[in-house]
Amino acid sequence: MVILDTLLYAFIAVVFIQVVYYLFIFGNFAFLKIKKPSSKKLPVSVIVCAKNEAENLKAFIPSIINQDYPEFEIVLINDGSHDDTLNVIEEFAKTNDNIKIVNVKNIEAFWGNKKYALTLGIKASKHDYLLFTDADCQPVSKYWIKDMSAHFSNKKSIVLGYGGYSKVKYSFLNKLIRFETVMTAVQYFSLAKIGMPYMGVGRNLAYAKTEFFNANGFIQHIKVRSGDDDLFINQVANSKNTAISFSPNSFTSSIPKSSFKAWYKQKRRHVSTAQLYKPKHKILLGLFYLSNVLFWLLAIALLSTMYNWPIALGLFLLRIIIQYIVIGFSSKKLKETDVLLLLPLLEVTLIISQFAIFINNLISKPNFWK
User: Fold this and answer.
1) What is the CATH number of domain 44-262?
2) What's the CA angle centered on 180, arms 344 and 299, to 5 degrees?
3) What does the pLDDT look like over 340-368, one tens digit per residue?
4) Which one, of 230, 238, 258, lies nearest residue 170 by Cα?
5) What's the pTM value of the predicted model, to 2 decimals?
6) DSSP string for 20-31
7) Which terminus of the chain is more solvent-facing, meaning fewer CB atoms within 10 Å of its CB: N or C?
């Protein structure tokens, strides 16, 4: 009985922590109304770094070329590709005079380092405001540049956007990938709203060139192969200089991984950078993940023994209902409402996957970006 009493008290504390996170942190994004900023039509350099992405470039670059925006250039970076990436880029440049090519040849000191390639692309860009996406991404509308750049102001020099993944019917993996993407977006949007921005995604991210040069570029974490997006934002973003953009026209869509192995490899690379976040961010994110794990473990332990089951069940349902409300409003904003149907199963699967990735990364570090 003493053990079960302890578990019940622990469950009460964990549910309290979860409710605080969902209502008072994530609710800042979930219940936020879209306020359309006035478009300033600032000249923008769109930067795309490609490594062996010939086919994706053929499919997606036209959606950037055809943006409805008065003044922008497209900086296409060929990062030492060994396929036809450079040829594809050159063909686009022949018919579009606003395309600038940066052909990066690998050197020993920066072999396979995306940050080196991006640095050359940023230096080659001619405009003061930079908008980043990946070679396998496409804007969902022709107003992507307009909606993202509209958030720049004298105070706001960083804009965090949403980079989703295309939907695949009857695929649990696809729903898992998109659920993880939604949860990540809810966290970085919400923390940005309460004045604690900690990351952005390179699939849809914008910042002023001055932010890059004032921080000496990626030099602080140049030896870390990943993190050109989240580690850089973790370094330079603060409560005053960061804005978020979540209007549907500002979204990008990427090709999701088609196998669990490929997705797992990708997430290993992403998760490996989190250990380099600022301590306050690691504590906030770590506490949320730990409370998630304990919520499910304690709920299973208490409900399986039927110990004080009305209290345990009531607490379980309270947290589940609040989660559904908050993630429901958030997923509606992000056009991902279908993930709600399998929310508990997706959450448990994600928790297990993240734990496996954490253990795997302790054993060996991922050291690649492609």
Assistant:
1) 3.90.550.10
2) 30
3) 999 999 999 999 998 888 787 666 665 55
4) 258
5) 0.93
6) IIIIIIIHHHHT
7) N
Identity of the residue numbered 228: D
Domain ranges in the chain are 2-30+280-360, 44-262
Six token digits for residue 323: 């989660």
Task: Kindly provide the residue ranges of all beta strands, DSSP E only, lying in 107-188, ordered along the sequence.
Answer: 129-134, 137-139, 158-160, 163-165
Q: Would you call 41 exposed, middle or buried from its count of C-beta atoms within 10 A (0-12, 13-18, 19+)?
A: middle
Return the closest-CA partner of residue 51 out of 76, 89, 81. Answer: 81
Contact status, residue 196 vs residue 239, Cβ threshold 8 Å: yes
**Number of CB atoms found within 10 A of residue 316's CB:** 20
Q: What residue has token string 């995306």? A: 114
Do residues 50 and 78 make contact, with C-beta atoms less than 8 angstroms apart?
A: yes
Q: Are 232 and 215 in contact (CB under 8 A)?
A: yes
DSSP state letters, 84-129:
SHHHHHHHHHHH-TTEEEEEEPP-GGGTT-HHHHHHHHHHH--SSE
How confident is the model at residue 125, as a pLDDT?
Answer: 97
